[in-house]
Amino acid sequence: MGKSYNQFKRNTLGQKVDLDGYPVQQKYQCWDEANKYFIYIGGKRIHCSRTGYVKDIANQRETNGILDFCIDIGLKATLQPGDICIWGDCPACPTSHIAIYDHDNGQDEVYFLGQNQPWPWVNIWKLPVQGIIGVFRPKIFANEKPAVKPVTKAPDQLLTVGSEIESYGFYVEKIDYEKKWIYNKWIGGWIPWSLVDEVDSRDGKKDQVLHIGSGVALHGRWTVEKVDAKNDTVKLKGMNFWVKSRALREVKEGR
Q1: pLDDT digits over 181-236, tens only?
Q2: Taking a C-beta distance cutoff of 8 angstroms, is the pair 74, 133 a contact?
Q3: Contact, 88 vs 55, CB < 8 A?
Q4: Using CA atoms in the order 205, 218, 95, 52, what is the torsion angle rounded to 10 degrees?
Q5: Which of 43, 87, 167, 241 can pair with 97 through a Cys bridge, CB separation 3.0 to 4.6 Å?
Q6: Catalytic positions, please?
């Protein structure tokens, strides 16, 4: 049996990939999983030599060797599973990101295989397509018939009053057991734990009993009530505090 994207997915999903052993606080980076894929599809490691972030892989495509084993299919092409997508600096990926397209619902729900999105192991996570600066198709899969429709009419991720949002996952960094609040810097500070669901089992099991390090997300959909563009925060209907826009994914545009 020849190589396939699905085979790679089965072999890496749920794993922690560390190719370079770089001693950073979060050693399992999106770069590691992507470069494991590069090697799998017959390529080589592509380093981030300009800024140190994965946006370099797209921005230096003409000289870094990625075009030796991938085709630059542009930003308007119909995506197929296995296509490599790279985000520049954007609200969803402030320091850029790289992941592999997996599937979508033809509208605003687009899922990618990757690492550190946000968990440190390989998972499939819903990400906005806004901010993508490069899309590359492995040459070994170039003749496969696309199994999905192009992504169209996705929300622009510019939050306005009336925008409907869901939150990205985040970690519990502190807990106030007396007040029943949890803290995470990424989302903007302290929030009541009654507003979140435990969404992974990294602390042992997904039992909704929160500990420091638990992976959580705001439960359900919320509507933006007010916007503070200067501080990049929004107030959600039903909340009495402000949340960082970067922690939120727009699923329906506002007015």
Answers
A1: 999 887 889 999 999 988 765 555 667 788 888 878 888 899 999 999 888 899 99
A2: no
A3: yes
A4: -10
A5: 87
A6: 30, 97
